[in-house]
Amino acid sequence: MSATVPFEVPAVNASAPARTPEDKVRSKIRAVAAFSRGARVVCAAFTGFGLVGVAFILITSLLGVAFPGPYGGPGFTSQQKMWGLCMLVVMYGVLIPISYQLYRLFGRLAAGAIFTPENVSRVRLVGLLWLMWAMLGILVPFAEAALVGIGFIDPLPARAEYAFSMAGTLSSFIAAALILLVAWIMDVGLYEKDQADALQREAELVI
């Protein structure tokens, strides 16, 4: 008489083990690193093109050639062209450091270093530089109006384009605030991580 089997044991797929939380974290870190490598290349290109652009503007200005821009065409006085040159140099002087700091930040992220004091400092510096860019959106038009008022430069033609606008300035302030908020959150997260690691080390020593 054959024995009956009361139930069947379900087959276990040994080829697909369950993913542990550590595996999920490593997978996410690899995804961040892959994205950061591409973003790093983009930031390097922006930084390089920015430096080439500044060099081109300075060389063409020294040679007396009209540089491209809102104040570089015919019909502008030498004072207006000088003001436009100063404004472009100031703009590049903020945008290039932003791009360079992002390049360094994405380089760290590509290496797998995420919550580090250096990354927190770089994100905070990017936020401060973006805040400076937003402040330029207010200061540049006022400085331009003051120079026209004292007669240093003639009133600008109607076709002169402004590098800063009210909507763009407001967006820059919002972006700066969000970046500084991210830096603050990263700083708090790094502190909590360090505290947790310290408690774990103490617990291991006790054991």
Give a quick set of tags describing it:
4 helices; 207 residues
Please give a structural write-up.
The protein is mainly alpha-helical. The protein has helices spanning 21-62, 78-110, 117-149, 166-206. Helix 1 packs antiparallel against helix 2 and helix 3 runs antiparallel to helix 4. The model has no long low-confidence stretch (mean pLDDT 78).
**Strand composition percent:** under 5%
Note poorly predicted spans: none
Number of domains in the coordinates? 1
Q: Percent range for helical residues?
A: over 70%
Residue-averaged pLDDT, rounded?
78
Give helix and strand order, one letter per element, not per position.
Answer: HHHH
Main sheet characteristics:
none
Spatial separation of the terminal alpha carbons: 57 Å
* Helix vs. strand class: mainly alpha
Shape: elongated
The total count of strands amounts to 0
Number of helices: 4
Radius of gyration: 28 Å
Compact overview of the structure:
The chain has 207 residues and is mainly alpha-helical. The chain has helices at 21-62, 78-110, 117-149, 166-206.
How do the strands and helices of this protein lay out in sequence?
Layout (H helix, E strand, L loop, with lengths): L20 H42 L15 H33 L6 H33 L16 H41 L1
Helix pairs in contact: 1-2, 2-3, 3-4
